User: Which sequence fits this backbone?
């Protein structure tokens, strides 16, 4: 994906990696606006939310942040906008091994069945507990 060169979006990706770097920072209310901004993007601007997810992956977040990205913004994006975004998701998974890995942490149960099937086919593996 051609990620936009938006300094605000890059800053949000860095802030997300910091906020979700540990359970302590994830639960810290001091930077709650990071969570709110990301939720707003996912609900109201799916293409920008997708670009944000790709930017977070490029930041090489730690395992805790990566897992939160999968179970949070990525999963919610597919739940709310699966039909609109699934082609982009499939293409990115083919081209980006880290994105493919991220899809392994997405639970399919909340998605429409046809979207869940396509996500299952797009990812190489499912994360094990």
Assistant:
């Amino acid at each position: 994906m051609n990620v936009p060169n938006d300094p605000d979006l890059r800053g949000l990706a860095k802030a997300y990696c910091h906020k979700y770097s540990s359970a302590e920072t994830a639960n810290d209310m001091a930077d709650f606006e990071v969570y709110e901004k990301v939720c707003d993007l996912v609900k109201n601007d799916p293409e920008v939310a997708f670009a944000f997810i790709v930017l977070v992956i490029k930041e090489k977040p730690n395992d805790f942040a990566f897992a939160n990205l999968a179970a949070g913004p990525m999963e919610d994006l597919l739940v709310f906008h699966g039909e609109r975004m699934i082609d982009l998701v499939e293409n990115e998974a083919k081209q980006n091994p880290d994105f493919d890995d991220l899809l392994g942490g997405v639970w399919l149960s909340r998605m429409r069945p046809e979207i869940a099937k396509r996500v299952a086919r797009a990812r190489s593996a499912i994360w094990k507990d």
Remarks:
- The helical segments are 7-19, 23-26, 32-44, 46-58, 63-95, 97-103, 113-122.
- DSSP finds seven helices and no strands in the chain.
- The mean pLDDT is 94.
